[in-house]
Design goal:
single chain, globular, 198 residues
Length: 198
Amino acid sequence: MSKEAKTKFEIHPLLKQRWSPRAFSDKTVKKAQLQRLFEAARWSPSGMNEQPWRFIVGFKGDDTYHEIFESLVEFNRLWARFAPVLVASLGKKVYTNKQEINPSYNYDVGQAVAHLSFQAMHEGLYIHQMGGFDPARIVHRFSIPAKYKPITIFAIGHIGEPYMLHPNLKKPETAERERMEFDELVFTGKFGKPLGIF
Ligand SMILES: Cc1cc2nc3c(=O)[nH]c(=O)nc-3n(C[C@H](O)[C@H](O)[C@H](O)COP(=O)(O)O)c2cc1C
């Protein structure tokens, strides 16, 4: 199933095709694919080149997967159980060489996952990120040091079919994707004044 973005301007096909499915097939993700996904994340830019991203990867059937899955809120458990791989992303809150908060750690982790999701599309894989989980449980179960904070959990896999999903989730899976207008997003002069090139 495709839910291609209905763009006003032409963008890279992989960006256009990316979306966040909840139905994943049981097809496994290859080790070589995962190597390339995390390579893409590793080469993402970051403030002061701190590279504050860390990842904990679980494969369906193993203990890591189980622990990541158990940290999810009920809504996400309804569908994330289909994903063959679940990943917890973590951010390092402080700079390595000075005892100061790194103000961009959250931003940098998100950007690394964005790079990873672009590579995933190139591999024919999909990513679905989740904020709906219990970070304290991740900290506890994986003995995360105090300098690090769980940021998101994301599912990786091949796309499945909407019929697999819980009845409440079938409609959103096929619904049209929506975005705000450019004039609400891109400004010049002062906040809220549209750039007006769109
Ligand atoms: C930081 C973040 C947290 C999210 N949390 C959840 C979540 O807990 N459960 C869920 O089903 N989707 C979650 N999503 C997916 C968004 O709902 C989705 O990206 C958004 O609706 C846009 O849809 P698209 O990715 O298909 O373009 C999250 C996405 C991001 C980036």
